[in-house]
Amino acid sequence: MSDDVQGAVPLPPPEGYQPLDWTRGFGRAIGPLYRRTAAGGTTTGFRVEGHHTNGLQNTHGGMLMTLADMAWGNVVSYERSVFWVTVRLVCDFLEPAKIGEWVEGGGVVMSEDNGLYVVQGRLWAGERTLMVGSGVFKALGPREPRPGEKNYVEGVKA
Amino acid sequence: MSDDVQGAVPLPPPEGYQPLDWTRGFGRAIGPLYRRTAAGGTTTGFRVEGHHTNGLQNTHGGMLMTLADMAWGNVVSYERSVFWVTVRLVCDFLEPAKIGEWVEGGGVVMSEDNGLYVVQGRLWAGERTLMVGSGVFKALGPREPRPGEKNYVEGVKA
Fold first, then answer.
1. Chains A–B, number of C-beta pairs less than 8 Å apart
2. Count of Cβ atoms closer than 10 Å to residue B109 Cβ
3. B37-64 tens-digit pLDDT
4. CA-nearest residue of chain A to B65?
5. Can you give the pTM of this predicted structure?
6. Which residues of A touch B86 (CB under 8 A)?
7. CB-based contacts of A43: which residues, under 8 Å, 6+ apart?
8. What's the gap between Cα B135 and its chain centre?
């Protein structure tokens, strides 16, 4: 018997989610993160573990903002297949999540002007919205569409 | 000879900075963080290591936002000795920082209304401003002033 939940094996992600291939740097420190891209769009998520929490055993705000950055920015990747950097992020914190919950996020590109994309985004856990906000992302340049992205054509690039 | 900078021992923090006593959760995963509180105010900072970086070997946006949350929110702790939660954070990304740089942040309480504090904040590395923005923090209730906080009186609480 133990209350050491941080040692428990986390539940797998929901169906269709694939782990992000990020084995070093900040992504490794705060991972694992997962992504699901389908015809309808793309979402990014993670299962809350001990190393995502604050002193109240809730998701730390920094972790939720990190997910917002990656989930909302990835909407630009999915829609336009460009490299980008984050210029501005506005995050409204509505609710935290607890250890064991699956937290995911996505958004919609609302405008595109002069290489600046504005994404309206949301993070949620089941039926609960955890965060709403917006991101401004600056395109650095186009790249080849990757599998799952809107402009990817099967077989055009092997 | 090696280019494995992630294995190198980081430089110590600047004079007066003390490590945050945060040995678990998200703070441990993304730490170590340091704080310096003096008569003039309070700043929070970290030395950029490999586990703070993105694929470009710059500080990841999520790490900078985490520091913004903690550095700007701590201004409320310093000024008012209250428990608080983050309600909103607005972050404008101006520049990233590189491995080895000392990054720090602080801010000013601009308004206080009905338990909501608005802090105007900044993150910087030496002379370079990395981020400007603002945070809205909601007071959860008062607590005893801690050493270094504005309202702390030596010897009143042992």
1. 115
2. 16
3. 987 789 999 999 999 999 888 999 999 9
4. A62
5. 0.91
6. 61, 93
7. A35, A36, A71, A104, A105, A106
8. 12
